[in-house]
Amino acid sequence: MSDTSEHIIVVGAGAAGLIAARELARAGKRVTILEARERCGGRIHPLLAAEFGYPADGGAEFVHGEAPVTRALLSEARLSLQEIEGTQWSFDGASFSRESRHDPHEAELHAVLGELKDDLTVTDFLRRHFAGPEYGRLRTSIERMVEGYDAADPARASILALREEWMDGGRHTQARIVGGYGALIDFLAAECRRHGAAISFGCVVSAIDEKDGAVVVRCVGGDVHGCNRVIVTVPLPLLRDIALPAAARAKAAVACDIGFGSVIKILLRFARPWWREVKLDLADMTFLLSDQTIPVWWTRYPEPHPVLTGWFGGPRTAELQSLDPQGLIDAGLDSLAAIFALPREEIARDLVAAAATNWAHDPFARGAYSWAMPATREAQAILARADGPVLFSGEALYRGRDMGTVEAALASGLETAGMILRK
User: Fold this and answer.
1) How far is Cα 270 from Cα 315, in angstroms, rounded to an integer?
2) At what angle do helices 68-77 and 180-194 cross, to 10 degrees?
3) Which of 167, 197, 220 corresponds to the end of one domain?
């Protein structure tokens, strides 16, 4: 028999909110999802297939590593994964080279990491153990990975949290969902509704009040919702915008010990894959790394879509803070022109469609995803506690290896729902 006596409100219809709501509704709870946007998905942002020739991802795109929760959900949704194939290239300002993942000091790095007991920031770790000029390439490679891949600040990021990622040389698998992450979000949203959960769009939560065991959620515009419990799944920077009961406010205060990074993502669709014509070796190029303003680019290889995606992550994205989407697209074209030694106008002539997002400018994200500082694991444990009617969930609370991913959000949402159902 369904237990509809307990009403649970989930704030946010991203991956964590949707999977938590699905689990709770499936168990017979009465569930309402309040979403600030006019769509589900949060930092998963599907773009129109008509514009890019396939269901492109303006936000999260890759499935990283083992991702057991994601893979189980994909199986349930009858969606498939395509593993990333092809060659990674680098451009050093003068020439192209196939990117070598091997560094001559890799074994030494692994040995030092393996013996490390006390946490340090990445910058302090490199200063203490790899300061010499012979380690210059290793330091640059590590800093570029921390900033670009983890969207983190090396001067504040935890070395112990990144150790596992580095011990396998960053070689764990990456894949894309056929149909994009939007297909997975569509499945979860449909599942929520099928099990009776209500999803309300345009609901910006401003306050959560608690009195005598009853909880009231207030939205900008005056809507008020009564419930028994609330799961807050918004990105970390938005927590400070929500007035919380004293106990929940004390918990939320530790969020300042969890890093939150920014990412700029640019998608450019061309009439043809001109980069292959410029350099025949690039026919199977997946990733291209450079020191240009937009430093990382990737293709859809092995798919034939003539789309290049530009990526810039980490604290240095603040340098482009003043640029609007068109300004970011222009910066992307300038970077490609410099890399391929082509006139910018020539590249721009072939442009069919373009989209750009600085996730720091998104009012309901204010950044891309979280990363760990030395105090983060303790902060996550406090935030994830199910003590009281206001619970927190999301990728920033995930204590496993791939923090900051969709897998992290899904795993956290499942864990939060499980804690409620076990009580």
Assistant:
1) 30
2) 70
3) 167
